[in-house]
């Protein structure tokens, strides 16, 4: 009798652990909106979802992971009148990251003005930050969108 109860308890724990492991991690409304929202202008977009998102489920409950974040970004103007954007990336991990960033410039009406923006590699040291900069070609006032992804 005692052995049967013990076996049933072992089976129940095993079944519960399998059911917990088979569940796909769900997304909170905030995480879903992060994936679906329009990026807008004068902003930073992380093209690789794993770089700066939080995961709502982990093996032992919520697992909030923040690898890289934007510590600040903006646009300025050089002495020659061209636009220069900057982005400070903060690495929240204990290992070095190499990412790629590119800037898409837009007119004040939202029309893309760059033909093919180029990805630039940017090393971000562990528990530190790095600054990315890019200049426009023309002198008109522009809006920007900086995209960041893991280096390929």
TrEMBL record:
<dbReference type="InterPro" id="IPR038483">
    <property type="entry name" value="YcfL-like_sf"/>
</dbReference>
<protein>
    <recommendedName>
        <fullName>DUF1425 domain-containing protein</fullName>
    </recommendedName>
</protein>
């Amino acid at each position: 009798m005692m052995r049967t109860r013990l076996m049933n308890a072992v089976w129940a724990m095993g079944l519960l652990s399998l059911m917990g492991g088979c569940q796909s991690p769900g997304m909170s409304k905030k995480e879903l909106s992060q994936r679906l929202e329009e990026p807008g202008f004068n902003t930073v977009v992380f093209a690789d979802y794993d770089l700066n998102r939080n995961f709502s489920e982990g093996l032992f409950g919520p697992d909030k992971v923040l690898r890289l974040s934007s510590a600040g970004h903006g646009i300025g103007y050089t002495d020659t009148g061209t636009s220069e954007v900057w982005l400070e990336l903060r690495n929240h991990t204990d290992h070095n990251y190499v990412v790629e960033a590119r800037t898409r410039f837009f007119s004040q009406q939202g029309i893309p003005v760059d033909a093919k923006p180029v990805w630039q590699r940017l090393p971000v040291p562990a528990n530190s930050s790095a600054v990315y900069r890019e200049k426009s070609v023309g002198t008109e006032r522009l809006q920007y969108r900086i995209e960041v992804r893991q280096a390929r």
